[in-house]
């Protein structure tokens, strides 16, 4: 039940955005979220954060999850390639991530390009 705590989700969102900005820089972060092909994901992510702050954490989380998949779906194939080397669970996780990445990435998904 603590997973959908409004304060924890809001703090996680803020820390996610701060971490992304620290890793790739403020200008590239702004350019990433402002790209024309990423508008749908950016809008869903922002709407999810807004719903969480308006005390609808479950629905906000679901909409935010959709936005993250749209924004970072192309990158899941790269993550799947890295995770595939982990013993025992690697092949299972790799298959799931490749399937999700193909669906979220659209027609050109699974290219393994960085999101920036």
TrEMBL record:
Lineage: superkingdom: Eukaryota
Family: Belongs to the GOT1 family.
Protein name: Got1-domain-containing protein
A GO cellular component entry from the record: COPII-coated ER to Golgi transport vesicle
Residue ranges of the TM segments: 6-27, 39-59, 65-89
Any single biological process term in GO: retrograde transport, endosome to Golgi
InterPro entries noted in UniProt: Got1 (IPR045176), Vesicle_transpt_Got1/SFT2 (IPR007305)
Protein localization: Golgi apparatus membrane
Bilayer topology term: Multi-pass membrane protein
Entry keywords, A to Z: Golgi apparatus, Membrane, Transmembrane, Transmembrane helix
Source organism phylogeny: Eukaryota, Fungi, Dikarya, Ascomycota, Pezizomycotina
Organism for this UniProt entry: Westerdykella ornata
Pfam family, one: Got1
């Amino acid at each position: 039940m603590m997973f959908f705590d409004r304060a924890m989700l809001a703090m996680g969102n803020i820390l996610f955005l701060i971490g992304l900005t620290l890793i790739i820089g403020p200008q590239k972060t702004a350019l990433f979220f402002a790209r024309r092909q990423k508008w749908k994901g950016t809008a869903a992510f922002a709407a999810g954060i807004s719903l969480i702050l308006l005390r609808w954490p479950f629905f906000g989380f679901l909409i935010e999850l959709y936005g993250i998949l749209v924004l970072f779906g192309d990158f899941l194939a790269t993550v799947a390639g890295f995770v595939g080397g982990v013993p025992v669970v690697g092949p299972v996780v790799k298959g799931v991530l490749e399937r999700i990445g193909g669906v979220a990435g659209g027609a050109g998904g699974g290219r393994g390009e960085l999101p920036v």
